[in-house]
Amino acid sequence: MGRGRQKAKHTKVARELKYFSPETDYNALERELTGSQHDHLEDELSKWAEYTADDDTYVPGDGTQR
């Protein structure tokens, strides 16, 4: 008998999730999708600047240092 009650609860939760529609901030989504990736890259690189300061002579793809 416990299985029927458990299945009913799962069905209820599944139905709530299926028809749930939260408010969407389309302006924030647009900013995220059209934002300048160059700025994002610069921000990420600045976080690691202290580690890459000694690697100024490294040439990507070369495998050697100058």
Overview of the molecule:
The chain is built from 4 helices and no strands. With 66 residues, the chain is mainly alpha-helical. It has a domain at 25-52. The longest helix has 18 residues, at 2-19. The mean pLDDT is 78.
Reconstruct the topology from this structure.
Layout: H1 2-19, H2 26-34, H3 37-47, H4 49-52
List the defining traits of the structure above.
66 residues; mainly alpha; 0% strand; DUF3073
* Pattern of helices and strands: HHHH
Radius of gyration computed on alpha carbons:
25 Å
End-to-end Cα distance, whole Å, is: 75 Å
| Helix proportion range | 55-70%
Poorly predicted regions = none
Report mean pLDDT, rounded to a whole number: 78
- Total number of helices: 4
Share of residues in strands: under 5%
The biggest beta sheet reads: none
DSSP, total strands:
0
Query: Which structural category do the helix and sheet elements fall into?
Result: mainly alpha
- Shape category: elongated
Briefly summarize what is shown.
With 66 residues, this protein is mainly alpha-helical. Helix content is 64%, strand content 0%.
